Amino acid sequence: MKLLVLGTSGYHPCERRQTACLMLPEAGIVLDAGTGFFRVREHLVTPTLDILLTHAHLDHVAGLTYLLDTVAQRPLERITVHGTGNKLAAIREHLLSEHLFPAPLPCQWQPLSDGTTTIESVRVAHFPLEHPGGCVGYRLDWAGHSMAYVTDTTASPDAPYVENIRGVDLLIHECNFRDDQRQWAEKTGHSFTTAVAQVAKAAGAKRLVLTHFDPLDDTNDPIDLAAARRIFPATELGVDHMSVEF
Known about the structure:
This protein is an alpha/beta fold. Helix content is about 20%, strand content about 30%. It has one domain (about 1-245): Metallo-beta-lactamase, Chain A (4-Layer Sandwich).
């Protein structure tokens, strides 16, 4: 399976990065719909699209408004947006209000239910994360492979979600701040470098890709990768347009 990293910035885009968006083209699955979502249409290979939202903060959902261009260039049989019920309701009432957006979106809205769901042979489970306003993470399993997506939370090796991501082949985890900005991470409900590496080690993940970087750091090195690798050697920096085979 191939994972495309389409947006790696947090809060707002910068010259180097768009905001949160990941894609599994072979399964027709997108994780979050930040501003990087406009890149999805270039990679569509399935007749359906399932969008898994972690929460409703704008850097993770603004790209839903790009769906009209997506289907104009690549008509789809079905588009389903998944998320917790209150977040989907907030998006439909506010982001897609007729005062802000001119047309209804060509999609179905599917609130997350207890347990797991299956999308194109991929088993999808969600779990709660601590973040202002609430957030969920996702674990995806298929044919002997697994990945987890954890964003917008304050990482800790003792956090309950570590059990949900145990043993994954690939962990995509937010890392908005460097270690010297730990107080900002805790204040805003985000993560800093050392704690994320400790989570990957505690969970027994095989590979860690960091994402959701501070947009004010528009450089090639938004976090201290060496510090992360001292704890968890198989750590990589997520980059827009990155393709991850696993």
